[in-house]
Amino acid sequence: MPPVLYLLAGFVLLFFSGDWLVKSSVQLARHFKVSTLVIGITVVAFGTSAPELLVSLRAVFDGAADISVGNVVGSNIANIALVLGMVAIVYPVKVIKKTVWLDWIVMMLATFGLILASSNFIISSFEGILFIVLLGVYIIWAVFNSRKQGKSKEKIEKPSLSLVKTVLLFLLAAAGLYYGAEWLVIGAKDIATRLGVSERVIGISVVAVGTSIPELATSLIAAIKKESDISIGNIIGSNIFNIWAVLGVTSTIKPINVSPSIVNYDYWWMVGIAILLFLSILPLSKGLVSRWKGGIFLSIYILYIYLLFV
């Protein structure tokens, strides 16, 4: 099969499988009477990071470490500059959580922790375990903080699917993610080889956008319908999970080699865009990412992708 078809098939499978995984995970949580608070912070967050995790694992074991790390870095840049930028152009995005600055600080700690871990151009298993531990602490803090604000008194909804159907959907999603990740990496590697483009560039651009498609599609549809269910907190949380969960789990299983280009160039784009996000939502109590700010984010993303291929 041509590499472009592998790439497209991988995109489609990851898109639907990621959605199925989130839905089945939420249904499973309801079957076991887990609150929506815990579902949102853990199950859904892991579910939306599953495509990145599967792609990164597959890439590392296929000897394409630049696709693995590039996928995470590219996704973190795309979440802010592409997803938030496009959504804000359609429908300005408000700051919903008043504690968003705390989440932003955690995201920056995760980002600089990644930069520090990569200073020797390898993310070791020990550093991966440390990322996972930090993620655990963050989840516990997030749950505790939300309960403190009185959000834990929500009623646990009844599942809309039977347990058997839920398990089958979960297994189907898991299989789809596995093969979707495999086909995406195969297609990306072949295209990079044929075009003479580095795996780093393909990982940061094509693969990263591919694994971010579910978030992008969902957010754009919500914006078109003028539903404010996308929040800055969701994007920040996704970036934290990408570093601590995706790279944490991947490097724990197998240490990841990081190319100097990613460490010395792409990481700093990720930092710069994160700082720009913070500036764009000032004042934090009633910040708004307006259409012109969204235009700036999208323009920066287009410039970054252009410079990658030049």
From TrEMBL:
Keywords from the named record: Membrane, Transmembrane, Transmembrane helix
Keyword Transmembrane helix attached: yes
Provenance organism: Carboxylicivirga sediminis
GO CC term (a single one): plasma membrane
Organism taxonomic ancestry: Bacteria, Pseudomonadati, Bacteroidota, Bacteroidia, Marinilabiliales
PANTHER family: INNER MEMBRANE PROTEIN YRBG, SODIUM/POTASSIUM/CALCIUM EXCHANGER
Every Sodium/calcium exchanger membrane region domain range: 4-143, 167-309
NCBIfam families, sorted: calcium/sodium antiporter (TIGR00367)
Transmembrane annotation, as ranges: 6-22, 34-61, 73-93, 100-117, 123-143, 163-181, 201-223, 230-247, 267-285, 292-309
Record-level GO BP terms: intracellular calcium ion homeostasis
Location of the protein in the cell: Membrane
Protein name, per record: Calcium/sodium antiporter
Pfam families for the chain: Na_Ca_ex (PF01699)
Any one GO molecular function term: calcium channel activity
Membrane topology, as annotated: Multi-pass membrane protein
Keyword ATP-binding listed: no
